[in-house]
Amino acid sequence: MNPNRKSIIAGNWKMYKTTADAVALVGALKNEVAGITKSEIVVCPPFTALAAVAGALAGSNIQLGAQNVHWEKEGAFTGEIAPAMLKDLCVRYAIVGHSERRQFFGETDAGVNKRAKAALANGLRPIVCVGEMLAEREAGKTEAVVTGQVRGSLAGFDKNQILETVIAYEPVWAIGTGKTASPAQAQEVHALIRRLLGELFGADVAGKVRIQYGGSVKADNAKELLGQSDIDGALVGGASLKAGDFAAIVKATV
Ligand code: PGA
After folding, report:
1. Of 98, 132, 136, 190, catalytic
2. Per the domain annotation, does 163 fall within a domain?
3. Within its chain, how far is the Cα of 58 from the centroid?
4. How far, in Å, CA of 9 to CA of 241, rounded?
């Protein structure tokens, strides 16, 4: 963490929680993190629970995020959700390009780029996910893969757009596996991403962009990961589904 950047801890609930379960979870979470303002706290429930969670979060220090967003304003795109529909529900952040979307639903950097730009054009902040697969890391391709994803996902961004964007580095082999990148491994890639942002947008802007780490972040490894100079927060899957576990990660930043 760096004091010039406000840390951001986001919970990605994936395809978990009915509406009633979602409302119960944020009810408990609100109490656990009440009064914390040093970090931004975000929860990203499934689309079906956004409206109810928005109501439950009103007036709290927890912000709402979605797990994806389409680039068109409206139209014949079965199964997709438009940016304005999310704005309508008080959503502030939208995850784009999560590795599960890339792996199982064929999303590409070009599509991620369109989703991120549409989010920004509608006042949503994209959380743009990048990260290498295990075989890519083992083949020494981490730098090339991550560089390509960052360049492709952020193609055509201007300085204002990148400053409203959060990047999440999530090595695919660490997601849901219980295997975390070591703090040094994570820091190495975060520093690489920040250097690349420096080339693209200038060092001053790059120094302000927040880069989250994601992949089996838990209460007991959060502090060490978040202690790295270029790690500005966490994108948390499994451990965001229990209020106490997620709150413990939030507290690792304060
Ligand atoms: P995990 O998921 O914390 O369960 O590894 C992280 C993510 O997919 O964002």
Report:
1. 98
2. yes
3. 21
4. 13
Specify the CATH number for the domain of residue 63: 3.20.20.70
242 is a domain residue? yes
Q: Is the CB of 11 inside a 6 Å radius of any atom of ligand 1?
A: no
Structure tokens at 212: 């989250």
- Which pLDDT tens digit goes with each residue over 199-214? 999 999 999 999 999 9
Q: How many domains is the chain built from?
A: 1
Q: Is residue 212 in some structural domain? A: yes
> Is residue 57 helix, strand or coil?
helix
Show the domain range for 233.
Answer: 8-251
pTM over 0.85: yes
**Centre of ligand 1 from the C-alpha of residue 246, in Å:** 12
The alpha carbons of the chain give a radius of gyration, in whole angstroms, of 17
Is 3 part of any domain?
Answer: no
Residue pLDDT, tens place only, 154-166: 999 999 999 999 9
176 CA → ligand 1 middle, Å: 5
